[in-house]
Write a structure and sequence with these properties.
eight-stranded parallel barrel, three-stranded mixed beta sheet, alpha/beta, 417 residues, binds beta-D-fucopyranose, single chain
Length: 417
């Protein structure tokens, strides 16, 4: 029998973005990486994505070097008012975005009042529209001067991050209650220092461990700074959390699941135990376990080639319940240029949230990734995650059908289970 689930009255329904992926006009370590690597990424894309069932649709875009240059991106830097009007038209009540460190501190100890003014204007624009901001301080990009000093592995990284936090909170603190210090620190440290795909493209386990340590320290100092400014501030990280699913409950599979959770899902939350007021959950997919880790070959794959299973969010929520902290889903979404999968995803993923709440997880918000189609790091523009379609040539925004479905459910605050 179907039953109607009602989301809590002050539940946050919103959408999320990151500065480098939408603002345009960047000058940071990723910009430099893009210019140095666009040709190579375009050449390698065919081999890298040959396994992807959707590849033929994207081949011409992904084999073009221009795809790998973020350039004007969504030109959100100049169009934020118009974009926020779209959030309002959808009736969403919250918005997660990131502050671009390289704009705030373009040279070491040189802080840009102009950039602070700009973010203040953005926060005022949100306030006027009644939209609650969730502000990320660091979504992966570094000022060039800091990258040149060793980036995350620089001994001074925590000091610089704390000082940047201080500048931001002193100026913008009065508009912001929810702070996310770091986005997916485990993902960026492993891709940049272990796998070597992302700047500075190192494959060095010692550098990786140091980057992790520095990030933990940076988070703690930033946390303390934000709480010192206002003890009521709610501060956390956005944690990449995978649902590891055993296809059969054998002993080997149990051991593999235990190891995966211990090495991926748990370490960060353990390391920052007394330095978080909530858990920000970024969840995209599950990993199947059957004498090894992999995908379930029978499931649909998103344009990215990630396994499609919106229900795995419930498992991620239940597994986080034990931390006894409020949970805000800070990212969840699908790469789907056609918007057919996303239309299926929206009701299913919101049911998955509802089931998580019913199972006792203290979930207080859902911020869909992403608000706009955007620049997907070393993959470029061809992956479309937006509720809003963006034509990158004309900068035209088109509201997708999935966004309208999301708007409808969030307005009602109810979903049939
Ligand atoms: C997350 C990142 C976000 C976006 C999505 C697809 O890991 O935080 O910036 O790239 O994946």
């Amino acid at each position: 029998m179907q039953k109607l689930f009602t989301f809590p009255e002050n539940f946050y329904f919103g959408a999320a973005t990151a500065s480098h992926q939408i603002e345009g006009g960047q000058n940071n370590n990723w910009t430099r990486f893009e210019h140095a690597n666009a040709e190579r990424l375009a050449k390698e894309s065919e081999a890298a994505f040959a396994w992807n069932p959707h590849w033929s649709k994207f081949k011409s875009e992904a084999t073009n070097p221009e795809n790998y240059i973020s350039g004007a991106a969504c030109d959100h830097w100049n169009r934020y008012e118009e974009d926020f009007d779209i959030l309002v038209s959808l009736g969403l009540n919250s918005y997660r975005f990131s502050i671009e460190w390289s704009r705030i501190e373009p040279g070491e100890s040189i802080f840009s009042e102009e950039a602070l003014d700009h973010y203040e204007a953005m926060l005022i624009a949100l306030q006027k529209r009644g939209i609650t901001p969730f502000v990320t301080l660091w979504h992966w990009t570094l000022p060039l001067w800091l990258a040149d000093q060793g980036g995350l592995t620089s001994n001074d990284f925590p000091y610089h991050f704390e000082r940047y936090t201080q500048k931001v909170v002193n100026r913008l603190g009065k508009y912001v209650h929810f702070w996310i210090t770091l986005n997916e620190p485990d993902v960026v440290a492993s891709h940049s220092y272990l796998i070597g795909h992302w700047p500075p493209q190192k494959k060095n386990p010692f550098a990786y461990l140091k980057a992790e340590r520095q990030l933990v320290q940076a988070h703690k100092q930033s946390y303390q700074m934000l709480k010192a400014y206002n003890k009521d501030n709610q501060v956390g990280i956005a944690k990449h959390q995978v649902a590891f699913v055993m296809l059969r409950p054998t002993l080997t599979n149990r051991v593999l699941k235990f190891l995966a959770d211990q090495f991926w899902n748990r370490p960060w939350l353990r390391k920052i135990k007394h330095y978080q007021d909530f858990i920000g959950l970024n969840h995209y997919h599950r990993h199947c376990i059957d004498n090894g880790y992999g995908k379930n070959p029978n499931l649909v794959q998103t344009d990215f080639g990630w396994e499609y299973c919106p229900e795995s969010l419930t498992q991620a929520l239940i597994e986080l319940k034990g931390y006894k902290l409020p949970i805000y889903i800070t990212e969840s979404g699908v790469a789907d240029a056609d918007d057919t999968l996303r239309q299926d995803f929206i009701p299913r993923v919101l049911k998955a949230v509802a089931r998580g709440i019913e199972a006792g997880a203290d979930v207080r918000g859902y911020l869909h990734w992403s608000f706009l189609d955007n620049f997907e790091w070393d993959k470029g523009f061809w992956l479309r995650f937006g509720l809003i379609q963006v034509d990158f040539k004309t900068q035209t925004r088109t509201i997708r059908q999935s966004a309208r479905m999301y708007a409808e459910i969030s307005q009602k605050r109810q979903i049939e289970l």
